[in-house]
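tool_call: predict_structure(chain=1)
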Amino acid sequence: MPFMGIEHWTIAICDDDEIFLSRLEKQIRAELQQLNVVGEIVSYTDSEKLLETKLHQTEIFFLDIDMPEVNGFEAASYLKKWNRECCIVFVSNKDDLVFQSLVYHPFFFIRKAHLDEELEPQMLELQKKAGKKVPQIELQTGRQSVKLALRDIWFVESEKNYLLFYREKDTRDEAIRVRMKMSEAEKKLEAHKFVRTHKGYLVNMNYVYRLREKELLLLNGKSIPVSRNYLNQVRMKIMGVVME
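tool_result:
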């Protein structure tokens, strides 16, 4: 999922050089301690194993480029498809690849030979990025008002005079139930990569895995119906997200 703020970061590191991998993890942990940030770090020596893991909740990836089987560029391309909001940091001794890496929109390119001087300022920049205000929506549930980060909403479903706001793992009973019209929710959310797929559904495009003939498949395995009236709109929205 997208950035979760400055309190807790989820980080994955991948490098087939075990000695450097250990050094990088140690230095990242030291920097996190200096920033007063709790970090959940998982390290990999095999990029294929990294990609086999459920990764859409990981926020930051430190990737070597020159790796066997799946190189860092290929891994970055795959990771961005699963989580467009994640931060990619390339860490490589191939300094000449810095311009080629820009195609994958990395947060930064750290040279292995200059790790000691380049890691610290980039960790500070990551903290600034994480600390940016997260867009929210305020929902009135009965007598209570609930603020929900837009990145936490996977889709919205209508139920008579109510809307159900679903987070990643919500069942129907766990979704946030609000008395609101779908048109009102669409107006509030359409500028934040949400698209109407059906008269009864509004979907966060950040979590779309695939468009099938009559449905959208989400990263958590749930499928959302797509009606004929909204199919072209959904296709255009997907193209817009891909081209960003």
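agent: DSSP finds seven helices and 15 strands in the chain. Proceeding to next step.
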